[in-house]
Design brief:
CATH class of the largest domain: Alpha Beta
Largest sheet: 9 strands, mixed
CATH architecture of the largest domain: 2-Layer Sandwich
Order of helices and strands: EEHEEEHEEHEEHHEEEEHEE
Structural class: alpha+beta
Radius of gyration: 19 Å
Number of helices: 6
CATH topology of the largest domain: Gyrase A, domain 2
CATH superfamily of the largest domain: Probable tRNA modification gtpase trme, domain 1
Strand content: 25-35%
Shape: globular
């Protein structure tokens, strides 16, 4: 089972008797459904519904939570959480002694049928030296996280990025910038990163409206180039018109956040989709719940 340190990650601890109530009222993830042995995706949004910080959240002890986020943004994330904490009895601290490690099954797992995949059984992980099921990945992928002392690794951060690309798992910094994406854009409506049945949280009104109206038109798609892809941030074009932007790139494989209505129109019209002159094919991630639009699409948002 390959094991790697993803790199550029930090662990933030939120501990105290009011920690869960405080976080439930500001984050997109529904903590009522967060079980021991799980690391669930989530975000802290702007009032306009855009992702300011994305993370994985897991339980830590009786009244604590660990937020696994991008290291570069950890300080700003902690300051923003502190502003929202008000009088809640919760202590926010950086656990810089904890090493973030990921592991996953071998490549054969990626070829299995993911048509009914959502979340895999984490029972075995709950007692396996602190490994937590990473719920961004589909059933059968066996992807898990660990927060603690450094462990032996036999894979690289690039190997981990290839795993993310194969499953359409986007992360801020590599795939989108803070304040540039809605949760739907990066599939948080599919992977449990948004609790649509929970109470209010920051940006909730915008996200709920997008969900109920079905107006999400920008989505993560898996990209395959005829050759090595250009750098992250390169525009994806159809017929000379920008339809999105490349994110994570590993050789000919990558992710892009694109307008799916324009992708469908290009495919139907036989128009080439390119990035930096490299011809691309685009596909819906295997565990995503969206499909390419049929017929007339909604107006731009």
């Amino acid at each position: 089972m390959p094991t790697a340190q993803p790199g550029d990650r930090a662990a933030i601890l939120i501990e105290g008797p009011d920690a869960e109530h405080f976080l439930q009222n500001v984050l997109t993830a529904d903590l009522d459904g967060l079980a021991a042995g799980e690391a669930r995706p989530g975000a802290l949004l702007s009032p306009q519904g855009k992702i300011l910080f994305d993370f994985l959240i897991s339980r830590r002890g009786a009244d604590g939570f660990l937020l696994d986020c991008r290291a570069e943004s950890a300080g700003d994330f902690m300051r923003r959480l502190t502003l929202y904490r008000l009088r809640a009895k919760a202590v926010i601290s950086l656990a810089d002694q904890l090493v973030v490690t990921a592991r996953w099954q071998d490549d054969s797992a990626a070829s299995r049928d993911h048509s009914t995949a959502s979340q895999f059984d984490s029972t075995a992980l709950q007692t396996d030296s602190g490994w937590l099921a990473d719920l961004r990945f589909p059933q059968g992928s066996g992807v898990s996280r660990r927060y603690g002392d450094a462990v032996a690794t036999d894979a690289s951060p690039d190997d981990y990025d290839r795993l993310r690309i194969a499953h359409g798992v986007a992360e801020s910094g590599k795939d989108f910038a803070a304040g540039d994406a809605f949760p739907h854009d990066v599939l948080m409506d599919s992977n449990g990163g948004v609790g649509f049945r929970k109470g209010c949280y920051v940006g909730q009104e915008v996200v709920s409206r997008m969900q109920h109206r079905g107006t999400a038109r920008r989505r993560v798609m898996i990209v395959k180039g005829v050759g090595d892809l250009p750098a992250s941030g390169t525009e994806v074009e159809a017929g000379g018109r920008a339809i999105g932007t490349l994110g994570s790139v590993c050789g000919p494989d990558g992710l892009a956040i694109v307008r799916i209505d324009r992708v469908k129109a290009a495919q139907d019209g036989g128009v080439s989709i390119t990035a930096g002159g490299v011809a691309l094919s685009l596909s819906v991630p295997p565990s995503a719940t969206y499909t390419l639009p049929q017929g007339e699409t909604a107006d731009e948002r």
